[in-house]
Structure formats: C-alpha cells, structure tokens
Amino acid sequence: MHQIKPMKIEDYEQSLNLWKRTEGMGLSEADSRESIQSYLARNPGMSFVSIAHEQVIGSILCGHDGRRGYIYHVAVDPEYRGLSIGKALVDSSLEQLRNAGIMKCHLMVVEANEIGKSFWGA
C-alpha cells in the first residue's frame, strides 16, 4: 500500500536517490536541494511523492508560470511499477494545475529515456 502526499523539502534526499536510480532520468545542478526547495516554494502543492514503508517510491515535480504547467521527474521505483502509481502522481499534479486555472502542461522527457517515453505513450 502506498500514500500520495504533497512533496516537501524533507522528501528531497529520498527523491534524489530515486531519480539517480531511475534509468533515463536527466539530472543537473537545477536538481540541487536549494533549487528544489525554491521550486517547491514557488509552486506549493503541485509536486507529489508516493510513500510506502516510510520510503519515497514515486515522485513528480510540477509547477507553472501562470500560463502553462510543467512536469519533471516522474519516477517510480522499479519494484512498484505497474501499480498505476505514476498515473496517480500525474493525476494529482494535473488536478492542482486545473485548480490554479492552468489548462495546458508541458512534459520534460529525455529523448533517450525509453521507460519515460513508454509511460507517456500509454
């Protein structure tokens, strides 16, 4: 069983660990703790994590510029894939974008990320 909750900076280390273990995930200096803390503060309640056994097993970073939404770092631990956790994370963020009046959203997927392309294609 897992729980989806808004991402907080306290989830950063576990989320970063998940991102590093996720094949095809592109990370940069924009993924530093300070940058993520700033992103979460600018976009409160838009990003989510999935928690099982007190561990982050899924994540999504989401925000907007007042006009368009942006989704980054959708990741689910391989052990938990196939349980619709990724879909639940995306649905949670898209609902928050709609609540903010944002009707369009851009996705960020590294071209070589076959797992990500498969997820979004489905």
Secondary structure layout:
Layout: E1 3-6, H1 12-21, H2 33-42, E2 48-52, E3 55-64, E4 69-76, H3 85-99, E5 105-107, H4 114-121
Characterise the protein shown here.
By secondary structure, the protein is an alpha+beta fold. It has a single domain, classed as Gcn5-related N-acetyltransferase (GNAT) (Aminopeptidase, 3-Layer(aba) Sandwich). It is built from four helices and five strands; from the N terminus they run βααβββαβα. A five-stranded mixed beta sheet has the order 1-2-3-4-5, sandwiched between helices. The chain is globular, with a radius of gyration of 13 Å.
In summary, what is this structure?
The protein is α+β, with helices and mostly antiparallel strands. The chain has helices at residues 12-21, 33-42, 85-99, 114-121, and strands at residues 3-6, 48-52, 55-64, 69-76, 105-107.
Count every beta strand, where a strand is a DSSP E run of 2 or more residues: 5
Mean pLDDT: 93
Assign an overall shape: globular
Q: Could you tell me the radius of gyration in angstroms?
A: 13 Å
Approximately how much beta-strand content do the residues carry?
15-25%
Give descriptors for this structure.
122 residues, alpha+beta, Aminopeptidase, five-stranded mixed sheet
